[in-house]
Amino acid sequence: MIKAPETIFTDSTRVWCDGATDIRGGSALGHPRVYMEIDEKGFAECGYCDRRFVLKGGPAEAGIHEVSPGDINPE
């Protein structure tokens, strides 16, 4: 099963992504660093790894909830 893309909440409208934030080896194992501008939609997506950057308090933040393992009821 494919893992869902990572969502990062930010206070800045200018963000960058190298695809290696959580990789131990650093950016050498990610992708080229790309810079993005969050526009009126309130989010930007990396064209390489699909990581989504959501502006805190912006229009895209409404309806997005961070889910913790204890929040899911496996009934």
Summarize this entry quickly.
The protein is mainly β. The protein has no helices and five strands.
Q: In order across it, which strands form the biggest sheet? A: 1-5-4
Multimeric organization: single chain
Instruction: Tell me the CATH superfamily.
Output: q5lls5 like domains
CATH topology: HSP40/DNAj peptide-binding domain
> Low-confidence parts, pLDDT < 50 over ≥5 residues?
none
**Proportion of helical residues:** under 10%
Order of helices and strands: EEEEE
Count of DSSP E strands? 5
Main sheet: strands, sense, barrel: 3 strands, mixed
Write down the domain tally.
1
The CATH architecture would be Sandwich
| End-to-end gap | 21 Å
Tertiary shape = globular
| Average pLDDT, all residues | 80
How is this structure best described in words?
- Keywords: Metal-binding, Zinc, Zinc-finger.
- GO terms for molecular function: zinc ion binding.
- It comes from Novosphingobium olei.
- The chain has a single domain (7-64), classed as Sandwich (HSP40/DNAj peptide-binding domain), CATH 2.60.260.
- Helices cover 0% and strands 25% of the residues.
- The chain contains no helices and 5 strands.
- A hairpin with a 6-residue loop joins strand 4 (43-45) and strand 5.
- The radius of gyration is 14 Å and the shape is globular.
